[in-house]
Write a sequence for this structure.
């Protein structure tokens, strides 16, 4: 429903052979190796962030209003310490395809570098492609 107006405008412009500024943004690209070559460097970078780099960004303690990955009893958690001093524990993996989440302190959000899912600091889904909240 959110993009239905925009979709109808794009379809109308396609039908009438008019230019549309949003066409490339919402263009469907079916998977092909030739198309993926254009984005291979970017894909590899995000895979590296989600599956390798953030595994080594482990915090030992948090300040109020901070979140991060912590190892507790040899298990990895995504932890947020709210302003009232209450800890919130989540699975550190995105429910979408298990990319490792990172915390953006400036915006107070959890972010998945693999497919750009965004969650608020309490694990509620803000933006997909993920369809679920973070697992508590």
């Amino acid at each position: 429903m959110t993009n239905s107006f925009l979709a109808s405008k794009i379809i109308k412009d396609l039908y009438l052979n008019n230019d549309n500024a949003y066409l490339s943004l919402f263009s469907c690209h079916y998977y092909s190796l030739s198309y993926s070559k254009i984005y291979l460097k970017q894909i590899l970078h995000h895979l590296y962030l989600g599956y390798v780099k953030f595994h080594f960004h482990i915090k030992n303690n948090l300040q109020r209003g901070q979140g991060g990955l912590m190892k507790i009893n040899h298990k990895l958690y995504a932890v947020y310490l709210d302003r009232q001093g209450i800890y919130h524990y989540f699975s550190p993996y995105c429910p979408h395809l298990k990319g490792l989440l990172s915390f953006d302190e400036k915006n107070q959000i959890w972010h998945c570098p693999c497919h750009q899912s965004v969650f608020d600091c309490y694990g509620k889904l803000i933006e997909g492609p993920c369809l679920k909240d973070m697992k508590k």
